[in-house]
Write a structure and sequence with these properties.
alpha+beta, Arc Repressor Mutant, subunit A, 10 helices, 12 strands, disordered N terminus
Length: about 290
């Protein structure tokens, strides 16, 4: 399990423990039904193909070092991909790519409608849409991708808000890195006090629900993407972390002022089980609910 900034990244195992799907001839041949966003561990066979990407593709490389070659200006250019490095392949772009050895990757895909629905980001009017970007580097991308994969594989046990927050954090970081490499400026901003108060009151009134990012963003009258960023700038917490904080604060109150069983408190606060509640409570408070109640 990986932790970062108070979030629980439930990353199971290592690269050698993963079950990889064999894919040939290249990553554009991999297609799986999704709601606009997907993640999978793939083993890419050696290939030389001219690929048109049906969605936005982000392959994150897991091998210590491997080489890909891509066609640019009438010749192949070599790019050594080290563990954690990734490429950004825009939807609709056609690229000629060559790989001489098998490569293990985590592939994250998202379609154009998903981007525009969650971010109001018009990819058609942006230079990012025109070409693939190779050999990008950021330490957080591999961790976010692995956390996404673990959440997908486990059936999202931490709730919708956790998975959606991970997806938008991943996508936002990808576009920040790519726009910076392309000489563009990423948007910044902070949630206003009135919006923050409105969101906080809404969350407090619905602590028993499995809140979604879309639902909370609607309260602030923002897209999920912009809400997540502005909320983090205002509170220094992700929406998922903030909701957990309010849940645990209310749990502390219930544990000290009522005789409710711990299982009932877990249910009242929307946790999937007493075990899940105990894990989160212990991580954030430092003791189990049972010890805290004493």
């Amino acid at each position: 399990m990986l932790t970062g900034g108070g979030a629980i990244y439930n990353i199971t195992g290592t690269r050698d423990d993963m079950q990889f799907i064999d894919v040939a001839p290249g990553i554009a041949s991999f297609c799986r039904e999704s709601d606009g966003f997907n993640v999978a561990a793939l083993n890419i066979k050696p290939h030389e193909t001219e690929e048109m990407y049906p969605d936005w593709y982000v392959p994150i490389h897991l091998d210590p070092a491997s080489e890909i070659q891509y066609w640019k200006r009438d010749s192949f250019h070599c790019q050594v991909m080290r563990q954690g490095m990734f490429n950004l392949c825009p939807q609709g772009v056609t690229e000629k790519v060559r790989a001489r050895v098998e490569q293990k990757i985590i592939l994250v895909t998202f379609d154009q409608r998903f981007i525009e629905k969650t971010t109001q980001y018009n990819v058609n009017s942006n230079r990012l849409q025109h070409n693939a970007h190779y050999g990008l580097v950021d330490n957080s991308i591999l961790y976010l991708a692995m956390a996404l994969r673990a959440d997908f594989e486990a059936g999202s046990p931490y709730g919708r808000l956790y998975g959606q927050s991970l997806a938008l954090a991943f996508m936002g970081r990808i576009f920040d890195i790519a726009t910076a490499s392309d000489g563009m400026k990423a948007e910044q901003g902070s949630l206003s006090t009135s919006r923050l108060n409105r969101v906080t009151e809404y969350i407090k009134a619905h602590l028993n629900k499995n809140l979604s990012l879309n639902e909370i963003a609607d309260v602030a009258c923002l897209t999920p993407f912009h809400f997540s960023r502005q909320f983090k700038n205002a509170t220094h917490l992700s929406p998922h972390q903030f909701v957990l904080k309010l849940k645990i604060e209310h749990a502390e109150k219930l544990l000290t002022t009522t005789d409710l069983p711990i299982a009932d408190i877990a249910l009242e606060l929307g946790f999937q089980s007493q075990s899940h509640f105990t894990t989160v409570f212990h991580k954030m408070v430092g003791v189990t609910p049972k010890k805290f109640k004493r």
